[in-house]
Target: Protoheme IX farnesyltransferase
Amino acid sequence: MSDVEFRDIEGTASHLATPSDFIALLKPRVMSLVIFTAFVGLVAAPGSIHPVMAFTALLCIAVGAGASGALNMWYDADIDRLMRRTASRPVPAGRVAPGEALAFGLTLAAFSVVLLGLFVNAVAGALLAFTIFFYAVVYTMWLKRSTPQNIVIGGAAGALPPVIGWASVTGSVSLEPILLFLIIFMWTPPHFWALALFKSDDYGRAGVPMLPNVAGAAATRRQILLYSLVLAPLGVTPALFGFASPAYGVATAALGAVFVHHAYRVWRAGDADPRFAAAKRLFAFSIVYLFLVFALLLVDRLAALFGWMV
Model:
């Protein structure tokens, strides 16, 4: 973004912005997944937490996720303008000034980290601070524009919410939340690379080195299949380590098999699928997969707590 464009946006955006624009800065769809996985981590953790503290923890995690989204949109405004998928976001569209987005994100980040650290516990607060830093600085400012492995490494930020939820109850991190972290971490590459396959023109215009643009579609399809083959058994590990019931293990094994099936179809389709129909189906199912894995774990934990038969 040039200095002239920046000054023009700064001078006109303030009177164009609406509350919905600032809500959009929070990336509410991403935030909803963050809240859900953090909630599962919180409920799955051993011990108890006061309802007010639990609500505060989830609120802080949600606000922290929103802060990360706002900081991401502030920094990425120049490339967001070049992609159809993101051109209508508040900053590149000129409805919110870059300085306003930056101040909004920093304020929310500070508020969420301090409140979580003081009101809940220091470990959860530190993990939230690290998550925001990793997403806003390590991923957005460095990895995204410098390496096709941006999604692989940067996925750590999106995988941390259940760990923060767990730490909010226990004040510590153990094997169980690490397994939840690994499930999301390994889910992220095939999920986003499926999107990158049918949005490669967008990323190419913006100069973002996503895997299809750097290594090609064939290599991306292979990587999607390989990661899916690792993800499928990883989703079952909570049951294998006694953290979830056998019923959870059977259900997640079936979901993993469907995930691998979709990934296999993406790999087999190759250049014979010019409209990327298989990749679009995988992308859609990947969202369902992650939701169901965590929903099953939530039901499993609630069943254990209330003595339901599973």
